[in-house]
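Continuing the series of single-chain predictions for the mutant panel. This is the parent chain; the variants come on the following pages.
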Amino acid sequence: MLSWQLAMQQAITDPEELLHILELDESFLIAAKRAAQLFPLKVPRGFVDRMQKANPNDPLLRQVLPLQAELSPVAGYETDPLHEAKANPLPGLLHKYPGRVLITLVASCGIHCRYCFRRHFPYAENNPGKEGWSRIFNYIAEDPLIQEVILSGGDPLVANDAMLADFTQQLTLLPQIKRLRIHTRMPIVLPERITPQCIAWLESIKIKKIMVVHCNHAQEINPAVTKALTSLAQAGVILLNQSVLLKGVNDHPKTLVELSEALFVAGVLPYYLHVLDKVQGAAHFDQPLERARKIHQAVRDQLSGYLVPQLVREQPEALAKIVF
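Parent structure:
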């Protein structure tokens, strides 16, 4: 078993253990256990090592700790906030935008982010398995406008390298495909996933390769993360980052400026800053849109343009993200 697979197996899934390691008050425990029954806790130990002990407001902890606020339904927040069920013609395939499709090869992630817009997604019904790949490839081949394939979450890098290589070898036989985009949190939360075998797989792909990582706070970037990102860049992967604007995590211009600067040092360009998707269970992370705009403008006032992510919101059934 590879070290990254072992690290995934050893991820913390018990709220009591997480609170104990971080020397936090057990008053959080009852609510954390109840919320974890709705959406389980999962966080790699290496990510926990980057958290500040005895600080319930640590920005990394807030992203993963189940809270009482998740338990009460909030009007306007849905289990399928982007109406993806309407854009799911085949198991494992979402076709929301012209020219590209999104494929969910696996149902699991390396970490469970409490604000995840797919926390209620029916992954059991959307795991195509290898037997479903041919249907996906046929769907793509029948629509010559599709030129880009996005591998997304569940996190595609949870799959092993042999499976990923098999899929991409078959995918790139379709002459219409010009780009492969990989959306993943693994290089950030579990940098040991970027093994020599993973790099060899990426180097073998002859079409353009883009990896969109997901980092919300500069504290998430440590030397191991930087090393993993550098290896990816050296393999010819274009590296972008998308963040989510989260109350109590990164909802301050200084925090976002520091994040952009840290990403650039690590070889990653800021790409998107998402307004929270209104998923049930995550309302406590949300911001009024006007405040989001003011925060974003303050970031623009302090950074060179190439370091400023676009402030966006995904609108159900729209043909593109809405840019503010």
